[in-house]
């Protein structure tokens, strides 16, 4: 029996696989396919305080090994979420993480304060990095000062651990990562989607209604992995790796580089059983390698021969 | 709604760009109703990445069929599949056509354009079980666009065909053929699937004649089961205008729910 559990310090996960926000609905959409109790955790769709319409269609474009989306955080809002969905969601024996959003600092705080009063939530993932909300993909995660300011305010308002979700659309992600850590983030999750676009040559029009969107899927994995590699060296808080994970091996790459857990996103859309398949593949790998605890894999990247014993 | 990761291909037929696959999937087939669809993993490779939606063309006992036209990388990958191969499908998905009670003994019309004919065959299977009479209108650019004409003829229901170039049947648009035939009959409801401009022309005919209609629409889908919110379009449902999921609130929408492009521009 392999021990797949992971201790993030503030949360103990039964395994390192978390379903990622925006690709997992509110969790309940996946109950026809998988037992949510088997997940390390799941992050529900980003919530503002009130319902949000999202962006005009078309909202999706498939690109080689990737998906560009411009959903724009359409959602039911935190108020309806706690009334209509939370009672059912809190019954699952896994970590429910709520991705929180805001048009401004006040709204982030209001969402956190509203959720603070409710039982059954393990942590908040602070979404400072959605590229689809403001024009041109702007978001607080692009600037170290804005990141520090927002994260410290949300941390102060929150009675729960906060995971700050970072954007890859920056020149030096470790700089932003340090700002979030300094501001009190309990963990970092990275990366959100890469700002991207696609054009139809026939019509010369952008393929997305919002012109720009966020690229996810296998296409981004090598770059996202590099960013996790850079960030784990610069921060002490646990890092959750996100980007193009489709298989156990993909997840293992992130863990070996130093992520303490992973989030699986686009793969959920392709195959709603992906998270369970990935957990199984990680377990099979450990068995094959004679590794008793998944913790023993984390951060074991071997850079050169001298480091081998 | 089930995931069947090992659905066996029973048979494959093709006519030019058009393909008909018969897939063994007892659980999905037994739950399916006309107008619903399945999401098909067209390739185990990372590209094409997403599943593709296909409306269910017919139910044959424990099997179901899909009818599609090769139009891009997804359908190209799927066209290469052969009998005894296995595919990974999810279904049945979506709402399906509403077949109002009391249609028994009455007449409905089915209007399909090109590959949009796909879901209407399943409707003929269901309607004949319910003793509903049917007139089928099948339009395409040319005779090659109408590979299922003989299959529909065999149902015993009246079939009207149209081609843009006159190579088979009525020369012109299927909506014009339907409007012309309306002088001779009045369907209790019209069920249609095809390119949006065609649906819009049919909608205008139905509105002018106060005939109810049900339309099966297409949209680019991420998941097919309501999680990603990628397939939304604007509809008015129960008096509320907003984004509705084509995968879950549709793919079938009624005449009064659809906001046509013309209307939107106003």
Key terms:
heterodimer; A: 309 residues; alpha/beta; 8-stranded parallel barrel; 4-stranded antiparallel sheet; 8 helices; 16 strands; 30% helix; B: 266 residues; 6-stranded antiparallel beta barrel; 15 strands
* Distance between the first and last residues' Cα of chain B: 39 Å
Give the strand content of chain B: 35-45%
Instruction: Output mean pLDDT of chain B.
Output: 95
Mean pLDDT over the full residue set of chain A: 95
Please give the largest β-sheet of chain B: 7 strands, mixed
Spans of chain B of at least 5 consecutive residues whose pLDDT stays below 50 are: none
Shape of chain A: globular
In the sheet with the most strands of chain B, the strands line up as: 10-9-8-7-11-12-15
Hey, which two chains have the biggest interface?
A: A-B, 34 and 28 residues
- Helicity range of the residues of chain A? 25-40%
Please trace the helix and strand order of chain A, writing H or E for each element. EEEEEEHEHEHEHEEEEEHEHEHH
Judged by helices, strands and strand pairing, the structural class of chain A is alpha/beta
In whole angstroms, the N-to-C terminal distance of chain A is 27 Å
Weakly predicted, low-confidence segments of chain A: none
Rg calc of chain A: 18 Å
Describe this structure as you would to a colleague.
The complex is a heterodimer of chains A (309) and B (266). Chain A has 309 residues and is an alpha/beta fold. Chain A has eight helices and 16 strands. The longest helix of chain A has 16 residues, at 274-289. The model of chain A has no long low-confidence stretch (mean pLDDT 95). The longest helix of chain B has 14 residues, at 196-209. Chain B is built from seven helices and 15 strands. Chain B has 266 residues and is an alpha/beta fold. Chains A and B meet through strand 5, strand 6 and helix 7 of A and loops of B.
């Amino acid at each position: 029996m392999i021990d797949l559990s992971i201790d993030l310090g503030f949360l103990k996960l039964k395994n390192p696989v978390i379903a990622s926000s925006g690709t997992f609905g509110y969790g309940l959409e996946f109950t026809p396919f998988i037992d949510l109790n088997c997940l390390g955790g799941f992050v529900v769709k980003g919530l503002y305080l009130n319902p949000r319409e999202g962006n005009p269609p078309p909202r999706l474009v498939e690109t080689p090994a990737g998906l560009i989306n411009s959903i724009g955080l359409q959602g039911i809002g935190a108020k309806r979420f706690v009334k209509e969905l939370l009672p059912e969601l809190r019954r699952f024996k896994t970590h429910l993480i709520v991705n929180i959003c805001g048009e401004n600092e006040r709204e982030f705080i209001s969402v956190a304060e509203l959720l603070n009063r409710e039982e059954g939530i393990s942590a908040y993932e602070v979404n400072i990095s959605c590229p689809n909300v403001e024009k041109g993909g702007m978001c607080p995660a692009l600037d170290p000062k804005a990141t520090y300011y927002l994260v410290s305010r949300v941390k102060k308002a929150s009675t729960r651990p906060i995971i700050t979700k970072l954007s890859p659309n920056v020149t030096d992600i470790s700089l932003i990562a340090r700002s979030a850590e300094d501001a009190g983030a309990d963990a970092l999750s990275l990366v959100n989607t890469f700002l991207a676009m696609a054009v139809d040559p026939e019509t010369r029009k952008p393929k997305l209604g919002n012109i720009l969107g966020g690229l996810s899927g296998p296409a981004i994995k090598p770059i996202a992995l590099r960013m996790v590699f850079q960030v784990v060296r610069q921060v002490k808080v646990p890092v959750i790796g996100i980007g193009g994970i489709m298989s156990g091996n993909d997840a293992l790459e992130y863990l070996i580089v130093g992520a303490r857990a992973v989030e699986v996103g686009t793969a959920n859309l392709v195959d709603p059983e992906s998270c369970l398949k990935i957990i199984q593949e990680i377990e099979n790998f450990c068995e094959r390698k004679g590794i008793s605890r998944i913790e023993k894999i984390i951060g074991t990247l071997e850079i050169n021969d001298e480091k081998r014993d | 709604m089930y995931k069947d990761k090992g659905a066996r291909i029973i048979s494959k037929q093709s006519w030019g760009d058009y393909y008909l696959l018969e897939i063994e999937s007892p659980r999905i087939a037994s739950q399916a109703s006309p107008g619903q669809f399945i999401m098909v993993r067209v390739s185990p490779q990372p590209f094409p990445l997403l599943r593709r939606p296909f409306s269910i063309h017919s139910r044959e006992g424990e099997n179901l069929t899909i009818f599609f036209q090769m139009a891009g990388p997804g359908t190209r990958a799927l066209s290469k599949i052969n009998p005894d191969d296995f595919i990974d499908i999810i279904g049945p998905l979506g709402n399906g056509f509403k077949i109002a009670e009391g249609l028994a003994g009455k007449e409905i019309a089915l209007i399909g354009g090109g590959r949009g004919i796909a879901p209407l065959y399943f409707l003929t299977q269901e309607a004949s079980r319910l003793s509903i009479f049917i007139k089928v209108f099948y339009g395409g650019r040319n005779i090659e666009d109408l590979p299922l004409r003989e299959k529909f003829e065999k149902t015993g229901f009246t079939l009207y065909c149209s081609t843009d170039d006159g190579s088979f049947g009525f020369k012109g648009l299927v909506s014009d053929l339907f409007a012309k035939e309306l002088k001779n009959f009045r369907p209790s409801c019209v069920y249609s699937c095809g390119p949006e401009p065609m649906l819009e022309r049919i909608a205008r005919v139905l509105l002018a004649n106060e005939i109810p209609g049900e339309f099966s629409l297409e949209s680019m889908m991420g998941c097919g089961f309501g999680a990603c919110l990628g397939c939304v379009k604007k509809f008015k449902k129960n008096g509320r205008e907003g984004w509705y999921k084509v995968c879950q609130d549709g793919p079938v929408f009624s005449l009064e729910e659809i906001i046509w492009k013309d209307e939107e521009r106003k």
